[in-house]
Design a protein that fits this description.
The chain is of the alpha/beta class. It has one domain: TIM Barrel. The protein has 11 helices and 10 strands. A 6-stranded parallel sheet has the order 3-4-5-6-9-10. A hairpin with a 2-residue loop joins β7 (257-258) and β8. α1 (19-37) packs across α10 and α9 packs across α10 (295-312).
Amino acid sequence: MEDSILTRMGDGERLWLSASDIRKDIAEGTEDAAERGKVPVLTDAEQGRLYDIMAEPARIVSVLPGEEVIVSDDGCSMSFYSGQDGGGVGVPMSRMQAVLTYERACGADSTSIGHSDYSYKPVKPIINFETNDYYNISMTTTAPLFYGAQPNMGLYFQPDGPCPNPSELLPLGEIKAALAAQEKAAGMLRDDLVYVGKRLAAIGCEGLNFDTSGSAGDADFMAALEAVAAIKAAAPGMPILMGASGEFVIGMHGEVAFNEKRLAGMYPHEQVKVVEDAGADIFGLAVGTSTNRTVAWNLARAVTFLKQTTAVADIPVHVNVGMGVCGIPMMEQPPIDSVTRVSKALVQLGKADGL
């Protein structure tokens, strides 16, 4: 086993691979990203450095002192009190206790709270309770406290919401009806995001997180962008982190735009520019992990997309390193060996501003 390297697949399975196989996967991964996003491949030197990170014998790896980056989160404190099916450990704690533990015991750079469903639609009817909780918790914390949730336009479609479901209309050939349903849902989503955002801003919210924007396609992404613009116009001092849901915006509608820029098919280096135009302060890059390819292959793709994004970005880029994103295996509790290698590569090679 002297020439083999212990690594993982995208689903978390551990396996031993030869050095040549690791190098091959890195080359294929960067070529795949470059072809899809029409961006440069990683140089030979960068591919070699990525191989070195993957081949480090230690279980946990890290950057050198002085190379550390800020860590933001999308509800990490929930892991203390949520169930195992949500990546949590089920400790009987309140939200405030969980946030304070995360801040003071774990030394978090920033903290956050959010509705347990982690979508903005169910927040609107209970906004008085959420603003009260946010205010009380913010009075006890020192690190920046974000309020976060997903736009999640899917909740506005039947049977959960009032709008006809495009996934039912499209197979029937009802194209115009499907497009109209998405446009109606996008308008409702935008209005709810703005309503919640303004209410939070009014009680001194230290930061708002639009997590996984575009999960229901380009109309979802458009609604989030429009909401960011409206909230920043009303509360310019409240930072907004807008995170993507994948390496390209899915064209479920195909024709919607923001500032005359068509959103469908945008890759991260294009997404970050419209997020900037909307007025967001941080962009959350996301690249999906393929479960049947290795971490090396997935990570090479993520670094390739990230490198181009940070090169053109005028705002900080915080890379999503959650479950099944940017090279992290698709597991509820991702293994530390993969998490640290992914984090190190994204910072050193992709020049991420944060994670």
